[in-house]
Amino acid sequence: MAQHEIEIILTRQLASCMATPVFLVDPAGTLLYFNEPAERVLGQRFDEAGEMPVERWSTIFSPMDAAGVPLPAESLPLVVALTECRPTHGHFWIHGLDHTLRRIEVTAFPIVGVADRFVGAVAIFWEDPGE
Amino acid sequence: MKVVVWGTRGSLASPGPDTARYGGNTSCVEVRADDGTVLVLDAGTGIRRLGMQLPPSLPRVDLLLSHLHMDHIQGLGFFAPLQRPNMDVRIWGPPSTTLDLRSRLIRYLSPPLFPVHLRDLACCLTLQEIAGGHFDIGPFKVESGLVCHPGTTLGYRIEAGAASMAYLPDHELRLGAVSLDGDPAWISGFDLVRGVDVLIHDAQYTAAEYDGHSGWGHSTTDEVVRFAARAGVRHVVLFHHSPDHDDATLDRLVADAARLAPPGLTVTAAAEGTAYTIAETR
Q: pLDDT digit string (tens) for B54-87?
């Protein structure tokens, strides 16, 4: 595998030190990493899930709105950050791979390095404990 | 390919009797191809003596800056080729996230820090901004890549024929690698150094000294040996010596580091004037 950009390596390093769930993808949307706090929300360890394309991670967690209507991939904050290269925020429901339904809030933003290199995107998210 | 070390020190020039063998000048390395093409890696204070050695008949010299911390550019204004009207000088280096290379260099090469403006230099000066990627200079194939160090910092891999060397003078492996034993895709600088004949690499700290200096951008001697071994390097040259490390200390550090090296990996410490010759044809 080709070496990751330094901004991606450093983002993963930061994520590995954070108590906030973090989800990291490359410019093509391929999931590169999620940290241990994210594992609790997503219901699976990253070592078990592994890297996966955007088509898989955008559906595997069955994102849906409050009415239970499935959300199209292009409406997910991380996909917006990837395709439109802008930060975005949203909240929705997911089914963790442990079969638990959770409401999460997500903030996603593109990672743009020196010389305006678009090197990926990151989502930080919170499980809403009130739901 | 011939590689000559003109400045070995990191952070601050530290001349004196205690540093005479390894040298007190800051980072500068000359790389010369068999056809005479000259690359200069960084413009620390060691570049002054190098500049005086370059013949006026040399038509072109390419200076590759790893980054713009002072210990890597302080000698720039004293690089003789910059004042030669017929000399083609090309400076390659990184922009920041907000300033281009010219704007960054002008911050140093202008009053009050320096009396001569960049625009007033006599040579034919070209600035080439790079933030990674491949380019050719004469017979040299140069690969550049951003590495883990505060600010925008490049490492270089340089090949000529069968010869290869890499130059990562400032590089913090501890923050730049998820694990030195893990997937190389997650190790800063790995692709630049993979399998090179000679790697010149930051080794400013001992493991004990690293405590309290996390995030300052430098590696420890033992980490550098592990990194080089993992990447299949043949000869790693410890570089960017701490100004607090005198010759006796460096003797001890390189001996300790060499004991960690697996068979097939040579470990030495950079000393001013040392030359490494790497065959371009095999």
A: 999 999 999 999 999 999 999 999 999 999 999 9
Q: Is the pLDDT of residue A129 over 80?
A: no
Give how far Cα B161 sits from Cα of B35, B45, B278, B280, Å.
12, 30, 10, 5
B8-36 per-position pLDDT tens digit:
999 999 999 999 999 999 999 999 999 99
* Domains held by chain B: number: 1
Inter-chain residue contact A3 with B191, CB threshold 8 Å:
yes
Range of the domain at A49: 6-127
Asked if the structure places residue A1 within a domain, the reply is no
Interface TM-score (ipTM) > 0.85: yes
Task: Give the range of the structural domain holding residue B261, as residue numbers without chain letter.
Answer: 2-277
Asked if A110 and A86 count as a contact pair (C-beta separation under 8 A), the reply is: yes
Q: Which residues of B touch A7 (CB under 8 A)?
A: 146
For residue A14, what is the domain's CATH number?
3.30.450.20
If you measure CA to CA, which chain B residue comes closest to A14?
A: B175
What is the rounded distance in angstroms from the CA atom of residue B243 to the CA atom of residue B73? Answer: 17
Q: CB A114 to CB B95 under 8 A? A: yes
